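ok so heres the complex, two chains, lmk if somethin looks off
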Amino acid sequence: MNPILTVAAKEFRDDFRNRWTIALTILFALLALGIAWFGSAAAGRVGFTSFDATLASLTTLGAFVIPLIGLLIAYDSIVGERDDGTLLLMLSYPLARGQLVAGKFLGHCGALAAATLAGFGLAVAIMQWMQPPEQMMQAWLQIGRFIFSASLLGACFVGLACLISVQTTDKSRAAGLALIGWLVSVVLFDLALLALLVISGGNPLERAVYPYLLLLNPVDVFRLVNLTTLGDGAGNDLLTGMTAHHTYSPTLLYALLLVWALAPFAWAMLAFRRKEI
Amino acid sequence: MNHPIECHALAKRYGELAALDGIDARVPHGQVIGLLGHNGAGKSTLIKLILGLIAPSGGRIEVLGQSPWRAHALRRRIGYLPESATFYASLTGRELLDYLARLKQASRTQVTTLLERVGLAHAADRRIGTYSKGMRQRLGLAQALLGSPELVLLDEPTTGLDPQATRELYRIVGELRADGRCVLVSSHLLAELEPHIDGALILRQGKLLAAGSLHALGEQAALPAQVLLRPREPAMSELIARLEMGGLLTQTRPDGRLELQVPRASKLRVLRELLADPAVVDLDVREPTLAQLYDWLGAGPPSTTEVPA
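and the predicted structre for the whole thing:
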């Protein structure tokens, strides 16, 4: 077997063994079902109602949770081996350093994608069984798109975690950087954009730039993939405010997510090749 | 035939620090060679260069006929036991060897055989997290033997092993030697290592102090043999006077035995005379040890006043 696949299979199995994958599957299923069931509680009723509203809430929640999980499962992938003293042993085997990073990246991405598919897939299956929405085919397409984009979003942050793991010398520093990465991409980036929007006071030229600024953050790209396809009123306020007069090509958005997934990972591979062991 | 390891003016620098400087050495097939030196002497750097994990800053190194730097396929022919081996605690011993055998493209049927060979068959399906340090070390030896490597590098292999496990380890090392493999053992435990090695590479502050068979190194050092004599009581003072006159006596031990340092050149003549001497009841000859040779070469850690190279 190719060494990359050997390492990936081991990491994938480890994530199952450490209960990461199972815990995530349950978490995703519970979140999806909870949002679907209680999403309209404020309006005085519970039960499965609008699938669009459910997916909009899931997207908002996924944009918070999935990057954090991607970072958490992979931040110690290389620095952890260094701390535990297994890195030298692994590198004494016939595999290139890049292959070790690639195997770990693929294994963790696979585990996260499996948990996303199983968790959200299970939730939608239960929703359909309890109270099938009228246009179930459309719902399955939307949830399929959500699962695919969520897996890509997870890969973006697994890649970032691999980069952090290669560039740091101890696990605690890597964990700190991972949390900073999460905070910047999930919270601070949007806040900064919002501040810019307020300060610019609706300057037409600057307003034209905002839709492109959003593409610099994979979390916003993930939101755009899912929210811009939903019915009116289901979108998020910041996004609808900024992108009201802009339409994005879905292909471009998926391509961007892919680039965001591969760029930090490729950087991690190159950096690890040059690292003094 | 090429030597498994050949170094020519090999150097490795980390910024201003010369970790290895101008190493010229050859390690032959079918021998067990001790890699000796204090902490910071350059042993780990040499091992990393042999494994191709770092590039030389100068000179050349060839391992099994090729440059090891980034030669990934070459590592299939090398086995390595790192110092204080730690492994994935959540895997079982068998799972770890299965995983590493896949990476090395070694036959998976070897896994069971190797676990039996290092005495871990009974714990093969237990998690490594439950292993004692000695068991982990034996697992480390098993993984180093995956794929029947031509060159085996053992870094402090007996750390944490009890005396019986240490004997077992050196028995396996002996089998590797008999099989024509080359084994390089890095260790601080000179007395333990001495009976099991054919030769030594001795490093100090990145330089090669000495290299060769133990016999040749002993000849080169020409260290005196130590002789312990038990004298016959009535004739004791006369014997001591004679030995002092010959410049052989170094001290009288608390148990009453006399300690002599006999130069290599006159050893046989002196021993014959002592055996024929009626004042001698018993004698015991001790050849210079590896530790004495090591001290003689000045291979110990540098003193604080010394300026590093």
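quick notes: Residues 36 and 54 of chain A are 5 Å apart (CA to CA). thats all i got rn
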